[in-house]
Amino acid sequence: MAFDECPPGGSDFTYAKKSMDLTHRWLDRCLAWHRENGPSRQAVFGIVQGGVHEDLRRESAECVSAAGIDGLAIGGTLGRDKEEMRGVLGMTVPLLPEAAPKHLLGIGEVDDLLAGIALGLDLFDCAVPTRLARHGVALLPDPDNRFRLDLRKAGHEGSRRPIVEGCPCPACQRHDRDYLSYLSRAEELTAVRLICLHNLTYMHELTTHARAAIEAGEFSAYGAGILRGGVPWDAR
Predict the structure, then answer these.
(1) Residue 4 DSSP SS3
(2) CB-side neighbour CA atoms (13 Å) of 93
(3) Where in the chain is the domain with CATH 3.20.20?
(4) Helix or strand or coil: residue 104?
(5) Contacts 24+ apart (CB under 8 A), 41-46
């Protein structure tokens, strides 16, 4: 990724444009350095900025697309909530070259991944799976609770259920909710490791099966199944 400046949420038009212009200048400097010093097989992504402003997003998309980069990332302020974020993505993604790989920076909740994939985004990065694990929260097919299970809350004592039935991760294959809840409430690092392995496996299963659904022409049905509470490996 080339350098960028991510403006604070709620930035006005003037600040968003200043940040975008700075990001474009940094892109030029990053590309110049990479041509002289970068590994020959390393891809360079430019970052499209512009906040929630369609004219700035268009200007940034045109500038970054013309810079000779290998892929494009969407960054910067994406709005105040999920609805505004999806509006920003909906107006930005069509501005990007169809054949270029597209990366969404810092977004990675289950429903956001599905929305982004449906728009045509290819890559994502986010700390959600590991950050949740540090606080004893596991991912599971429960859209009413934001796909989350808080193992530190009361009610898991004596439960012999895995976090998610059928999940191939080590936590679900070898341990139950009672034990994981105990470890997490005791602040044992083993709990962080096991729940982290589960959350990363859950996301891996989600994206692997989303790819298969796309190839089969069934992504809409797959996404709808996930949002109804289906497990990633059997959502249709």
Answers:
(1) coil
(2) 20
(3) 13-126
(4) strand
(5) 43/70, 43/71, 44/1, 44/2, 44/69, 44/70, 44/71, 45/1, 45/2, 45/69, 45/70, 45/71, 45/72, 45/73, 45/101, 45/103, 46/2, 46/71, 46/72, 46/73
The model's pTM: 0.93
Q: How far, CA to CA in Å, does 47 sit from each of 4, 23, 28, 62, 92?
A: 7, 8, 12, 11, 12
Grouped pLDDT means (10 residues each) for the chain, 236 residues: 89 95 97 94 96 96 96 94 95 96 96 97 96 98 98 96 98 98 97 98 98 97 97 89
DSSP 8-state code for residue 92: H
Closest-CA residue to 106 (of 137, 85, 91): 85
Contacts of 92 (CB under 8 A, 6+ apart): 48, 50, 57, 61, 74
In the structure encoding, which two tokens stand for residue 74, read together? Answer: 């969407």
* Residue 157 burial by Cβ neighbours in a 10 Å radius (0-12, 13-18, 19+): exposed
Nearest to 73 by CA among 65, 85, 84, 81: 65
| Amino acid making up residue 27 | L
| Position 5, amino acid | E
Third-level CATH fold of 13-126: TIM Barrel (3.20.20)
Identify the DSSP state of 105: E
In the structure encoding, which two tokens stand for residue 104, read together? 């969404």
Dihedral angle over CA of 158, 164, 169, 170, nearest 10: 10
The reported pLDDT for the residue numbered 228 is 97
In the prediction, which pLDDT does 235 show?
82
